[in-house]
Amino acid sequence: MGILLNLKVLNYQKKEIIFAINNIEIKKIENEAKQMAKKILNKYPYYIVSEFLTGIGNAIANQTNETAKSISSFRIIPELNHHLMEGLKNPQELKKIAVFIFFFSKLFSSSIQKRFLITKEIVEKNNIKTLWYELTGQNKVGQALELMAFGNYLTMHLSSLYGENPSAIPYVDYFKKKLKEI
Question: Are 49 and 77 in contact (CB under 8 A)?
Answer without folding.
Answer: yes
